[in-house]
Amino acid sequence: MILTKKSLDRLRSSNFFCAKLTNEQADKLLELFGKEPATEHPFVWDEEHIWFTIRKMIDY
């Protein structure tokens, strides 16, 4: 999964955890996960890793 602004906005409007993110935190998430992680397979971020980071950001 590569996080885009559109997908993050959708999550922030429909998900309880993502709704708690501040604009600064959302920008940081886009900075971290908005690009391909590496040139090796897999070419996308693990969705569990993204959710772990979101929970960590909101101190859940």
Task: Describe, in plain words, how this protein is organized in 3D.
Helices cover 60% and strands 0% of the residues. With 60 residues, it is an all-alpha fold. The relative contact order is 0.23.
Helices and strands, with pairings:
Elements: H1 5-14, H2 16-19, H3 23-33, H4 47-57
Q: Top keywords for this entry?
A:
mainly alpha, 60 residues, 60% helix
Short structural description:
With 60 residues, the protein is an all-alpha fold. The protein has 4 helices and no strands.
Tell me how many strands there are: 0
Rounded to an integer, what's the Rg over CA atoms?
11 Å
Query: Pairing-aware structural class of the strands and helices?
Result: mainly alpha
Morphology call? globular
What do the pLDDT scores average to?
86
End-to-end Cα distance: 22 Å
Largest sheet: none
Uncertain regions spanning at least 5 consecutive residues? none
Tell me roughly what share of residues is in helical segments: 55-70%
Proportion of residues in extended strands:
under 5%
Order of helices and strands: HHHH
Q: Count helical runs.
A: 4
